[in-house]
Amino acid sequence: MINPEILDHDFPTYLKVIAEFTENELIPAENEMVEAGEVPVRLVERMAQLGLFAITIPREYGGLGWSMEQQVLLTFEFTRASCVYRSRFSTVIGLCSQAILDHGTEDQRRQLLPAMAAGTLVTAFALTEEFAGSDAGALRTTARRRGDVYVLDGSKRYITNAAWADAFVVFARTDEAEPGAAGVSAFIVDAKLPGVRTALPAIMNGHAEAPVGEIHLDGVEVPAANLLGGPEGEGKGLTMALRGINHARMHVAATCIGQATRMLEETTAHLIGRSQFGSPLSELGAVQAMLGASFAEMEAGRALAIESARAFDTGVIPRHRIAAAKLYGSEMAGRVADRCVQLLGGEGIVGPHPVPRMWRDVRALRIYEGSSPIHERNLAKAMIKQVGADGALPDSYRV
Ligand SMILES: Cc1cc2nc3c(=O)[nH]c(=O)nc-3n(C[C@H](O)[C@H](O)[C@H](O)COP(=O)(O)OP(=O)(O)OC[C@H]3O[C@@H](n4cnc5c(N)ncnc54)[C@H](O)[C@@H]3O)c2cc1C
């Protein structure tokens, strides 16, 4: 539950609370988390108390209702710690709550959002399947209507929080005659229903302490009332997912900045303290070139994220700029991580330094929420279409 005083904080005070939580509790507990192989329960409880499950949910549904720009500023702070921590609440604040907020019926909003904001109802977003990854519209999970229920059959994989979730937003094909996106609907599925089974992978390369999981649905009877958006929601599942996906991409873009910030802080401190050839490594020109370039690229990513978030807050979702922010941010975080590992030398490979762990973690940011090649392809397609239509680029700044 959210501590009552948190609800009274103005944004600058709240931002400070989260910055202090990151510095005093999340970062110091990283090694404990790695040893335990999961985020310690007491920290998940602290996240809930401090309202981290609530930052995107409006006040009328029990959340904190911060704007996208404020959410991005918060993300810069809490992702100075391992991005694994963020995974524990990311599916609630992004993909799931935003789809319910935008497209759920009022009953669904009132029933789900307050518990999600309080951190007592953890939700996972179940879209990806073995034969439907980048091509999500090819999914094969089916939902067949039988009286007052839909019967769900199929399997999902790579689902963040599958193992911890109380409920899933599951995408399934309600129209089997329609092979593409138009035949897909979204359902809120209680994780305890008979026929639901989850499984964790044996190995994770990065994000190890917040493993993604499989969800198997075997004849699961889901009440028809759990069709997202009510009867009108049938066949609109993937359209409904879009706001949450854009929202999540914005947060991933901001996560890349938080991770780069921490890696550069840690690496610069190391370089100041370590001498070779009679002087600190930080005095070597080649080393400084890598640091300076990294700083400039990180700040470009920060500006792009803030600018896209401000545009988001005007009400028209700038999806191409958001895609660019996510693409650039995740590629930037990868370059910065690689340089930092290089600058740490053997410590970048051997031992418990946080940077090599973050290097492994940020690799996944180039794959989920749209892989980099998919963003490049989609941006190019949008450019060609828009310029062909009116000569301007998509999400154009032209006046
Ligand atoms: C840590 C993590 C968390 C995740 N969390 C979730 C979650 O919560 N919910 C969920 O539903 N899914 C989740 N996913 C799944 C994620 O969305 C998919 O991994 C992603 O969409 C890519 O699908 P795929 O892995 O099947 O790769 P594929 O679709 O097989 O693609 C593999 C690679 O091929 C290339 N490629 C594919 N298509 C094209 C194209 N048209 N043009 C150019 N290149 C292309 C890209 O380089 C791509 O990375 C998560 C994944 C990871 C790794």
TrEMBL record:
InterPro entries reported for this sequence: Acyl-CoA_dehydrogenase (IPR050741), Acyl-CoA_DH_CS (IPR006089), Acyl-CoA_Oxase/DH_mid-dom (IPR006091), Acyl-CoA_Oxase/DH_mid-dom_sf (IPR046373), AcylCo_DH-like_C (IPR036250), AcylCo_DH/oxidase_C (IPR009075), AcylCoA_DH/ox_N (IPR013786), AcylCoA_DH/ox_N_sf (IPR037069)
Keyword Flavoprotein: yes
UniProt xrefs under Gene3D superfamilies: Acyl-CoA dehydrogenase/oxidase, N-terminal domain, Butyryl-CoA Dehydrogenase, subunit A, domain 2, Butyryl-CoA Dehydrogenase, subunit A, domain 3
Acyl-CoA dehydrogenase/oxidase C-terminal domain sequence ranges: 235-383
Essential cofactor(s): FAD
Domain Acyl-CoA oxidase/dehydrogenase middle: from-to ranges: 124-220
Every Acyl-CoA dehydrogenase/oxidase N-terminal domain range: 16-119
Keywords for this protein: FAD, Flavoprotein, Oxidoreductase
UniProt family annotation: Belongs to the acyl-CoA dehydrogenase family.
Name of the protein in its database record: Acyl-CoA dehydrogenase family protein
